[in-house]
Amino acid sequence: MKRLPWIFLFLLPVGCSGNHSGILEVAGRVEAISVDVGSKIGGRVADVFFEEGDTVHAGDILVKLESEELEAMVQAAMAKLAQAEAQYQKAENGARPEEIEQAEAELRRLDEQYQMAVRGARVQEENAARAAVRAAEAQWEAASRDFHRAERLVDKALARRDYDMAKARYEAAEAQLRTAREQLSMVLEGPRSEEVAMAKAARDQAEAAVRALKTGVREEDKATARALRDEAASALRLAENNLRETEIRAPMDGVIESLDLHPGDLVRPGAVARIVRPDDLELRVYVSAFALGHIRLGDTVAVEADSYPGTLFQGTVTYIASEGEYTPRNLQTREERVHQMFAVKIKLNSSGGKLRSGMTATARFPVPRKETP
């Protein structure tokens, strides 16, 4: 809350002499309670919904800032929070039964491959490899005889095309025979040591994966997932708060005293408008240290405005300063302390619009007159 900055005052004690009661009259200027309204983020003005002098109610949107970028940031923060929440729930709940079954099936497959690598080829595989070699040899021998015969008859009783076909069959049979013999050699030799080691490593890795799924996530991993979830939630709250700051709203009922913005204007973080409450007024006056001893919070005080001479309005003392003003802080003599003044605030209402901000008014305190020697 802020007060209108200009204050005028004078001190005029009036009363009876001696110890009889008197009236202390102190003048000041009536102030309207006001509040500066703005945004913490700033930005480009999209819309302005009120003008200076308009009456507004608490919650009314005064100014709207452009919000496309902040809306996108909110959506991104929501997506990150959903991802972090899913990871956290996964850490808390552990693996699903179907995930464990799938991992166990993969372990069985890799274990069979490893066992085959260790045992080597079976007798059936060796017999099949030998049979494949014999069949390839028979085909090669037949193709070899046909090819040698074609060599002797080419250009005599055999066409060149038939010779080429015989040669192709011979070369194909020779390649097939080499492949069969290499396959038989591999079956007889068995897998190499590095192949066995690779099969074992794959089996061990699958076994560790199954064990991890059954054991569940470690507590420290759960704590990490929880922290990431909380961090994402905080980022979302921050993004949503910044988005709300694009709507500058009236915090109370009142009248707009200042607002000078137009769509397209760039504004910095801070106040952009001031709202005053015409019916919520205050009179600030200053009294001496002697008078201060006779004034209490909550006292009812008669107030007379210069604009309505002879008419008394009622006010209530709501504030008494704890430190004096207008004199040095270290007062050495009694005469100096007499001039020390203390601020007093008196709450008023407008009395149907009669009292307004800026009027000069006089507060009358029932204070005993100080006896003059």
Structure in words:
- A hairpin with a 6-residue loop joins strand 10 (300-305) and strand 11 (312-320).
- The strands form two sheets. A six-stranded antiparallel barrel has the order 2-9-12-11-10-13.
- It is of the alpha+beta class and 373 residues long.
- Helix 1 (68-93) runs antiparallel to helix 6 (219-244), helix 2 runs antiparallel to helix 5 and helix 3 packs antiparallel against helix 4.
- 45% of the residues lie in helices and 27% in strands.
- It is rod-shaped and about 150 Å long.
- Among the domains are: 10-57 and 257-368, Efflux pump adaptor protein, beta barrel domain (Elongation Factor Tu (Ef-tu), domain 3); 68-93 and 221-244, Helix Hairpins (Orthogonal Bundle).
- The two termini are 45 Å apart.
- The chain has helices spanning 68-93, 97-119, 123-153, 160-189, 193-215, 219-244, 289-292, 334-338; strands at 10-15, 21-39, 43-48, 55-56, 61-65, 247-249, 254-259, 266-267, 270-288, 300-305, 312-320, 341-349, 360-368.
How would you concisely characterize the structure shown here?
With 373 residues, this protein is an alpha+beta fold. The chain is built from eight helices and 13 strands.
Question: What layout of secondary structure does this protein have?
Answer:
Blueprint: E1 10-15, E2 21-39, E3 43-48, E4 55-56, E5 61-65, H1 68-93, H2 97-119, H3 123-153, H4 160-189, H5 193-215, H6 219-244, E6 247-249, E7 254-259, E8 266-267, E9 270-288, H7 289-292, E10 300-305, E11 312-320, H8 334-338, E12 341-349, E13 360-368
Helix pairs in contact: 1-6, 2-5, 3-4
